[in-house]
């Protein structure tokens, strides 16, 4: 047994090294291996650019919520006019905008149980513990995040960029199919985008689209009047 431990310690001479030293060396190597595994697991679940959860991390987080048996909410953010930033200012500027938007979302959703991720491109998802009984709170938090993202961003190259987002909110009941949850969020976000962006749309139960207005945080609203806020285009200078 001692000879096996000594051999695992990394080539130390079996005749010259005490067993205690060999055991300590073994623990160090095992500790390093665990750290490397932890780093690999973190990298596999997080976006390299923003540090948020990536698609794999979000899938795991949603699966855990589905298994919990508790209601929750999914909020999808799709930046308005982001392609124009890439096309006019370049991808480095686009990356800066993505990082800044990620930071704003991370700061807006910092309560215990909140999870923020990047689906890819300029799409972000927030998972919260706010369920159907707290829909007005979910709406308010999404609206606050949207307001924070509307502030002009000063990029390193000196340009000032203003972007908005189209936001879809889905309240999820226990037992809901995750693929359907994502489709519902896509539909709500697309409706917000089609109406000019810079607004929040709730995918209401049992499947109706409910426009959520800035002046009226009513989760039962079923009319599709245009949002109260004006649409802000991407501004670069």
Automatic annotation (TrEMBL):
Gene3D superfamilies: 3.30.70.270. PANTHER family: DIGUANYLATE CYCLASE DGCM-RELATED, REGULATORY COMPONENTS OF SENSORY TRANSDUCTION SYSTEM. GO terms for cellular component: plasma membrane. GO terms for biological process: cell adhesion involved in single-species biofilm formation; negative regulation of bacterial-type flagellum-dependent cell motility. InterPro entries: Diguanylate_Cyclase (IPR050469), GGDEF_dom (IPR000160), Nucleotide_cyclase (IPR029787), Rev_trsase/Diguanyl_cyclase (IPR043128). This is GGDEF domain-containing protein. Pfam families: GGDEF. Residues 70-205 form the GGDEF domain. PROSITE patterns: GGDEF. One of its GO terms (molecular function) is diguanylate cyclase activity. Signal peptide: none annotated.
């Amino acid at each position: 047994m001692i000879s096996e431990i000594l051999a695992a310690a990394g080539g130390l001479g079996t005749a010259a090294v005490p067993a205690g030293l060999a055991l300590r060396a073994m623990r160090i190597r095992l500790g390093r291996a665990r750290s490397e595994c932890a780093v690999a697991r973190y990298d596999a679940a997080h976006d390299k650019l923003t540090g948020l959860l990536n698609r794999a991390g979000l899938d795991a987080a949603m699966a855990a919520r589905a298994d919990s048996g508790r209601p929750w909410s999914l909020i999808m953010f799709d930046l308005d006019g982001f392609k124009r930033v890439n096309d006019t200012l370049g991808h480095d500027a686009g990356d800066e905008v993505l990082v800044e938007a990620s930071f704003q979302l991370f700061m807006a959703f910092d309560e215990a149980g909140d999870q923020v991720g990047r689906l890819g491109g300029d799409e972000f998802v927030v998972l919260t513990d706010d369920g159907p009984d707290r829909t007005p709170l979910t709406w308010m938090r999404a609206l606050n995040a949207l307001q924070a993202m509307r502030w002009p961003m000063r990029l390193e190259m000196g340009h000032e960029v203003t972007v908005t987002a189209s936001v879809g909110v889905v309240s999820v009941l226990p037992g809901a199919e995750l693929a359907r949850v994502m489709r519902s969020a896509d539909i709500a976000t697309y409706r917000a985008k089609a109406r000019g962006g810079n607004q929040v749309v709730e995918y209401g139960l049992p499947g109706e689209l409910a426009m959520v207005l800035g002046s009226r945080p009513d989760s039962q609203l079923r009319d599709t009047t245009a949002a109260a806020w004006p649409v802000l285009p991407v501004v670069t200078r």
